[in-house]
Amino acid sequence: MGLKTAVADEALLQVRLESGRTVEEELKALRSLARLLDSQFEVMGVKFGADALVGLIPVAGDAVTLVTGGAALATSVRLRLPWHVHTRILVNLVTDAGLGAIPILGDAFDFFFRSHKRNFRLVEHHVLERAAKQTGVKRARPTKQAPAS
């Protein structure tokens, strides 16, 4: 996940949201997609995902990962997260697709920007905050740790 989840946050994963699904259910597919697109593979210590590989196909590759990455935006909208979350997700996606479309430089950019993990963390943070507010459980401050694959 990139951030160590505190014990209180582990309990929040089981909270049922207005959607009828638990926090964990809402985040599971989005976490898997972010991992696939940004860090599924590793070569010589460098992690990368399908975004970097598909991005090697000029224009079409970046269009495909833009549409696929829209899952974070769709989740954010469906869960009625704040508008600024939608905006940040959209900026990350457009930055990834726009800069990724630049020949050679864009391909290198795709290996390191990891917009899908950024977007997952945005959704995760706001969904956990909502669950904490809903239950009255105080969230522990997350501590940085080595990024998980």
Structure description:
By secondary structure, this protein is mainly α. Helix content is 62%, strand content 7%. The strands form two sheets. A two-stranded antiparallel ribbon has the order 1-4. It has a two-stranded antiparallel sheet with strand order 2-3. Helix 4 runs antiparallel to helix 5 and helix 5 crosses helix 6 (105-112). The chain starts with a strand and ends in a 5-residue tail after the last strand.
Broad structural category? mainly alpha
Strand content: 5-15%
Instruction: Report the biggest beta sheet as strand number plus sense, adding barrel if it closes.
Output: 2 strands, antiparallel
How many β strands by DSSP?
Answer: 4
Mean pLDDT: 86
Could you list the spans in which at least 5 consecutive residues all have pLDDT below 50? 1-5, 145-149
Give the SSE string: EHHEEHHHHHE
Distance between the termini: 8 Å
What structural keywords apply?
149 residues; mainly alpha; two-stranded antiparallel ribbon; elongated
Short description:
Helix content is about 60%, strand content about 5%. It has about 150 residues and is mainly α. Strand 2 and strand 3 form a beta hairpin.
Set down the secondary structure blueprint.
Blueprint: E1 3-4, H1 7-12, H2 23-38, E2 41-43, E3 46-48, H3 50-54, H4 60-78, H5 83-100, H6 105-112, H7 115-135, E4 143-144
Antiparallel strand pairs: 1-4, 2-3
Helix pairs in contact: 2-4, 2-7, 4-5, 4-7, 5-6, 5-7
